[in-house]
């Protein structure tokens, strides 16, 4: 028994150093846990390639009521989460424009917005005419049918976020080990959090965990000297039936993303067709992007659960799992960190 008045620091091992593992590690360290993160490296990290949108209203899809509720809860936790990191440059946009190319695209967007408003009556989404949208973002094409402004729904620079999380965690005493873990029993600690994204079900001790990999191509474009500036807001478009987004960065934009079933856990080579579609659609949506430099073509795999909801739960009295965040892992990071902190308590 510890002496009276003595503080006992309990040890937590986190398997996975993506956005979920890092957010949970920081939350646990802030609550007095002694934390070590074991991570296999950035190569298989979806958070490294992601767009960084903090999607809530713009992600709402009819039928996904529970996911929308979780996203709304996470959205309300973002201001404190960012304040904890102390790097204002992590946030790259405050609002999103939801843009439709045609009347058919607009009808789909209307359905989406009706669904969101029915679930979240206080949702800050307002209809915008094509002219209003072009006034807000002058680099948008004239050929749009209309859309909505989602106020307060912005984006972060995902790579800057990962760096800021790691720095904050290191300052809070978190240790980092580069290693691929095959069994939670391999790592020390009173508690183990397995937050290894798509790699989570391969870690023995986690048990049966059905997951799907949803692959997506994504591009990074850099502004050149004579090019138009990047948009100030996230532009999320329905472009002739295809989803498309342009997310600002300090030096350019991220253009994404395709979405289809990965054929295996290492299926990360970008397909020519997906890249061609993104380039063509982005060039139509914002013609000024055609003079940007194409500096990165990548593909990642979204770690998705069977029902599309994040899996954050206790497996046994030592192991907790946090994975299955699919297309929303960045947006859902603060919610997940709070939930894991609750499970640890
Ligand atoms: C193209 C694309 C665009 C996206 N855009 C967005 C977006 O705009 N907004 C948003 O919210 N989300 C977006 N996402 C989804 C988001 O990236 C994921 O949901 C999120 O990264 C999941 O976080 P994670 O920490 O669970 O997994 P990851 O980010 O994949 O990290 C998992 C980590 O675990 C490590 N690991 C794996 N197995 C082991 C092991 N056995 N031992 C040790 N370490 C291991 C890996 O090396 C990796 O570092 C996008 C995803 C893709 C692919």
TrEMBL record:
InterPro entries: FAD-dep_OxRdtase, FAD/NAD-bd_sf
Signal peptide: none
GO MF assignments: oxidoreductase activity
Single GO cellular component term: cytoplasm
Stored Pfam families: DAO (PF01266)
Coiled-coil region: none
Protein name, UniProt field: Thiamine biosynthesis oxidoreductase ThiO
Gene: thiO
